[in-house]
Design goal:
The structure is a homodimer of 265-residue chains. Chain A has 265 residues and is an alpha/beta fold. Chain A is 40% helix and 14% strand. In chain A, α1 crosses α11 (246-261) and α5 packs parallel to α6 (141-149). Chain A binds chain B through residues 10-14, 17, 41-44, 47, 90, 93, 96, 100, 136-140, 158, 160-162, 165-166, 169, 196, 198-199, 201, 204, 226, 229-230, 232-233, and chain B through 10-14, 17, 41-44, 47, 90, 93, 96, 100, 136-140, 158, 160-162, 165-166, 169, 196, 198-199, 201, 204, 226, 229-230, 232-233. Bound molecules: adenosine-5'-triphosphate (2 copies) and magnesium ion (2 copies).
Chain lengths: 265, 265
């Protein structure tokens, strides 16, 4: 069974992309077959994975707007065996407006992904263990497509004051998608990111999130660490850029907790 | 003459809200009359200014979607004389979809603002010196409304690797708005934010941005500082929360540089 997980939070800069690529790499390094779908027009996940995403490269835009088969745009990630990526290119920026008037506008990614997973099966390929979808910082049609395509929602929360401000809106939108578009989608995981042990604020926010969502928050928190933010400039995840760093070890631990939880939640 | 400045960058978490509220407070503390328009459905700017923005409070949603007069929703900011705010409430989250099919969907904020400024003049009130518009992390209709309403664009850039990745897209969109909707809009200012002097990465990104945009980047950089991120939890800007901190002093300096540049750029 393939676990399809959408990484979402409309608050910007909370570690969606960083968590997507590092969790994906950590899972793949442990033998899992993992696909990252980059649904952010900025293409940060594609950059972090070292995957080519210049304008003419086949991308997720071709899949959801033009109807191209996903299998034709998947690229392997050089640094990590078992890790693949559907890149985002700049034309994705226009997708939200283009999707508004299209048929089945909310479920085009879901359909493309289920077709791809079935085609892999019929071709006798090993099934993917995880699909992680990186979302832009908004609740528009791209994020809705991701919520319709997934069963699980993974929410990174930065240990900063504004963290809780948009959360109720995100949860409301997930409820709307579950009521009208995808009965299976549910929040399975919350990850606390950029935890700075030197500040009282981080501890206060972490405490508050754990009180609100005791069963969803992973025990491991990701510390604020320069090595994590340096890795993308080398086209790598921190897992291969600096495997012994606190950042890499905490993502390894968080990935283990995610895999142990299973889809059962 | 009122300078209308849109604070925009679709990259999330780069310091748009933090720069908007702290620059606004710094300008007001020096005697300027300043209005902040919160155009982000999360309402972080309203929170940081300590302005009530619960669901039933009259807000920018009523102005741009319902056509309500802006003068009816402006609130004074208690902590700082001369500083006002048009708050954002949760119903702004639905505005982008609602705007798509409305008449003059791109210029509703521009029209509401120019009507408000003229009404203030006719009532014999002192003119506003600055209007700062805080945008959400996307290039949708809310940000387009802000770009149509403004003459200047102020771009905060975080000193992190992904900083330059989305910039060309933002500049392209500004060019489109200038070509079709607002001939006056131009990028007047770039501010480097969350500069961490301990990392090589921050210096590299700052250097690269200065090389690309030598005339636009303010000399002052905003350091990463815990006091800046703590201030919103007290419903204050750092200017009043901790006026002697490096964060407050650097925003004071940046505001001085912005006012000296004038609208001439
Ligand atoms: N644990 C960490 N320690 C230090 N820096 C981090 C950490 N996690 C993320 N970062 C940095 O913080 C910035 C924001 O992270 P990231 O881009 O992953 O967030 P995001 O939620 O994907 O942003 P967006 O909303 O724009 O999509 C990036 O520059 C990233 O390198
Ligand atoms: N100079 C700084 N030092 C430390 N923390 C900062 C600094 N500037 C901003 N922050 C913190 O970083 C986070 C992101 O900043 P902010 O919310 O202002 O960015 P934004 O661009 O408005 O985000 P969004 O894209 O969600 O609108 C906030 O928690 C804020 O308190
Ligand atoms: Mg991202
Ligand atoms: Mg903001």
């Amino acid at each position: 069974r393939t676990r399809v997980i959408t990484v979402a939070n409309q608050k910007g800069g909370v570690g969606k992309t960083t968590s997507t690529v590092n969790m994906a790499a950590a899972l793949a390094l442990h033998g899992a077959a993992v696909l990252v779908v980059d649904l952010d027009p900025q293409g940060n996940a594609s950059t972090a994975l070292g995957v080519d995403h210049r304008a003419e490269v086949p991308s997720v835009y071709d899949v959801i707007v033009e109807g191209r088969a996903m299998g034709e745009v998947v690229q392997p990630v050089k640094e990590v065996d078992g890790l693949f990526c559907v890149p985002a290119t700049i034309d994705l920026a226009g997708a939200e407006i283009e999707l508004v008037s299209m048929v089945a506008r909310e479920s085009r990614l879901a359909k493309a992904l289920s077709t791809y997973l079935r085609a892999r099966q019929e071709a006798g390929e090993a099934p993917l263990d995880y699909v992680l979808i990186d979302c832009p910082p908004s609740l528009g049609l791209l994020t809705v497509n991701a919520l319709v395509a997934a069963e699980e929602v993974f929410i990174p929360i930065q240990c900063e004051y504004y963290a809780l401000e948009g959360l109720s809106q995100l949860l409301k939108n997930i409820d709307l998608v579950r009521a009208h578009l995808n009965a299976d989608v549910h929040v399975s995981t919350i990850l606390l990111t950029m935890y700075d042990a030197r500040t009282r604020l981080a501890a206060q926010v972490a405490e508050e999130v754990r009180q609100h969502f005791p069963d969803l928050v992973l025990p491991t928190m990701i510390p604020r660490s320069v090595r994590i933010s340096e890795a993308p400039s080398y086209g790598q995840t921190v897992m291969t850029y600096d495997p012994g760093s606190t950042g890499a070890l905490s993502y390894l631990e968080a990935a283990r907790e995610l895999s142990l939880r299973g889809a059962a939640t």
